[in-house]
Amino acid sequence: MKTNKKNLFNQRRIIEKRLRPWLALRQEQVPQSGWIKAIRGALGINTRQLAQMLGVAQATLVMLEKREAQGKATLELIQKAAQAMNCKLVYALVPSEPFNDLDSIVSTKARALAADLLRKIEHSMCLEKQGGDAADSENQIDRLVIELKSKMDSRIWEPR
Prior knowledge:
mainly alpha, 434 Repressor (Amino-terminal Domain)
């Protein structure tokens, strides 16, 4: 089945709009103790009480807090703990620095692929004594980036 490129562009535009408010939060760090323990402490709930709210043993809750702080807890368990404390787990994937949106990620990957492709072509041309200048190469890369992005060329995501 052929991928509908227009739908992919629209999907990216919609997702980028939804991600925009989250970009400011990407600088925030998870508390060293993890969110569950930090929020539990801020609310004045002890481990025995939260364990009862969750219907688990106190030792299970302590282990959950440790695993969350290590980045090893499941989203399902974090969500249950959040709900027990009248909170909501908010989850998003946002572009990491220095990217400000998904398009800049795609552009960077497309530029790397374009440069690789052009380098291979230029190598062949140099062997035939037909090499171009740097400005011409940059223009060719720019045009190739536009083409790769417009076609949503899957080679963009191939490892190099």
